[in-house]
TrEMBL record:
It comes from Streptomyces griseorubiginosus. Residues 60-79 are annotated as: Disordered. InterPro entries: ABC3_permease_C, MacB_PCD, Macrolide_Exporter_MacB. Residues 19-237, 499-697 form the MacB-like periplasmic core domain. GO terms for molecular function: transmembrane transporter activity. It is found in: Cell membrane. Residues 274-394, 736-851 form the ABC3 transporter permease C-terminal domain. This is ABC transport system permease protein. Keywords: Cell membrane, Membrane, Transmembrane, Transmembrane helix.
Amino acid sequence: MTVMKTSMRNFFAHKGRMALSAVAVLLSVAFVCGTLVFTDTMSTTFDKLFAATSSDVTVSAKGASDSGETTSDNGRPPVMPATVLTKVREAQGVKTAEGTVFSTSVTVVDADKDSLSPSGGGPTIVGSWNGNDARTMKITSGAAPKNSGQVMVDQDTVDKHHLKLGDEIGVISAIGTHTAKISGVAAFEVTNPGAAIFYLDTKTAQETLVGRTGVFTNVNVTAASGVTDAQLKKNVAAELGGGYKVQTAKETADANQKDVEGFMNVMKYAMLGFAGIAFLVGIFLIINTFSMLVAQRTREIGLMRAVGSSRGQVNRSVLVEALLLGVFGSVLGVGAGVGLAVGLMKLMGSLGIHLSTSDLTIAWTTPVVGLLLGVVVTVLAAWLPARRAGKVSPMAALRDAGAPADAKAGRVRALVGTVLTAGGGYALYLASAADKAKEGSLWLGLGVVLSLIGFVVIGPLLAGGVVRVLGALVLRMFGPIGRLAERNALRNPRRTGATGAALMIGLALVACLAVVGSSMVASATDELDKTVGTDFIVQSDSGQLVTPAAVKAMKDTPGLAHVTEYKIARADYTTPDGKTLKDTDITAADPTYASDLRTKTVAGKLADAYKPDSMSVHEKFAKAHGVHLGSKIKVAFKDGATAELTVRAITSSDVVIDAGSKYMSIATLAKYVPADKMPLDQLVFANAKDGQQDAAYKSLKSALHDYPQYTVRDQTDYKEAFKDQIGQLLNMIYGLLALAIIVAILGVVNTLALSVVERTREIGLMRAIGLSRRQLRRMIRMESVVIALFGALLGLGLGMGWGATAQKLLALEGLKVLDIPWPTIIAVFIGSAFVGLFAALIPAFRAGRMNVLNAIATE
């Protein structure tokens, strides 16, 4: 009870200083709980949607995926004959059965040819209006489509694009473009997570999406009363025999959930990883806070020991304070996490993914995980200061000598830190010297962990030298005030090292990612300059294949010397060594692709690979399967015949663009694959006639005006697009790392605030002999700046080392240019100085307001 009272008294006596540590715990716990609530809510939303939209049993074509998505390379959904519907209706236990047609390989545009597809990455679905959809959609205005001139649109899409009844829209598919006027609007009766849905009548859907009537993509089956889904599936499967995919409602819903699960897991674990970094940084803040509080209470602890308190009681007193801090911060963090989840839901809504707060899901495990993490991390962080408090000598404390420095512990720290840092450096060296990226990545991971821990451990030893150098460069210009700030930072190297380490972690990751991202952009740009000979590249940023109509529009564009189609086919290979490779890619392109992409060859000429019944393979493939020029490879095309192709060229495997590709001509592919099974183009290349690049660029854009799903880029555009993609990814990561940096700033604030209290008498004496308030505040700000710059210098140096090593591994994959983004590095270093200034505002203000006489009288 006495320990609890003492802990409570000390906790509330330092509530202002504890608050900053509590904020660090709060932020970290909030990020964890917010991530869990947000992803659980997304999962609940999709579960409800998939459960509501799945019929008791669904029959689909054999080529369809488990979730029913379009999988055909020719842009058309896998279909089955309408006779299947008749057979299903004859199966025992069937109440109703209805055939439907739908596709996601479509683009829908308004009358101005602007895309109506979701901007947040949700699917665009065009299908036939059916009874199964009528269970989850309510027609709010107009009527369902009855003929080819009518289409019904979901309410969310109507609201977003300001559509109304009678507006004309166009459905662009592999078959062509079908136009119709909006006849009705249907609203979801469950949460729509971001899809845009358009309904046609069944006959029109068949003609628009497949190109012929008498086929369905799905048959939705409803069970008769008393018949289970499992029994109905068995009966339907028995009636149909083989060749079709038959799934229960649960199997369909699970397959759909699995499709979105991968995306949610990546997002969930990425965000939890950044929360973990924030926790790690928070550990330094808590260790510093309790270390300084223990040091300031040395006399009090000595008195407790002198009147009979044991080491264990003193230890427990500090740990109970940490427990109170952990519980307080974690409880607030759990509440803040729910608020963060709601904020993320609103953000996703602005991106087109709608999540309803009515589906907000808070599993019982979420607050438990948050509380456990916050409390355990806080108590563990306070264990070292608590142990140090328990070792205080009563007599030394009563003499106000403070806790004596442990020389042995300092030597052990130096030895351990040096060994860890050297081990990390050696692991990074092994990573940079590795011959295989997979092997090198293991050494890189080990090197990052060891070097980070090593720098944290050896930080207090580095503080002395680094702070002196920074002081000479930055602080000496401020005269005596600058020298005082430098000495204050050097007064307790352990404290300076721990405070700087908190900032070091976040900035090391920033520097590493900046180097990797910049090197990737520089390498890709260099590779494009060396190998890409085409003027224009046309592709869909959303992954849509290029339709024949769009290709024709490009070929009819004036000012172009040639247009190159580029397709990916699937086939089984039988190589000269007798091995069969199943479902493998082969690239089919026009012969002009040999000049559009200047791929290096190690044998033969790439142009020869585009001759009839010819192909190329890459160097690694050739070595693995005993292939040489003139070798014959049997290629069994998916949905086509088997060809025996002659190897006319072997390309280098040391490339970035189209790495590992095997080439053949489209004419050869067309010889063995029927026209209606031919895959659509992945992208299209175009070259302008000499001197007509600018005019051809404008003409090509104009020709594709009716196809907004495709983007025309010249080489400059393509480089900028790649740079923007990397930049957006890095900005998102930097935003998440900002959480760790905010916690590090709180650490600097807390260290300075406690340091000011610790030096109250000293500050009073300095003020008494003539130091002005302005000079005092400047001294504290300068001290904060040098601590922040110390952490930044270590972090940026460490991060650039990690990034340079990572680039060596990327070089094994063809990204050979190391590019250090000096503007970013310098901006971050200078920004760290402003972080130091910002962190010192409150401590400096409080120090300046001290009463001189009271400060001098302080013991």
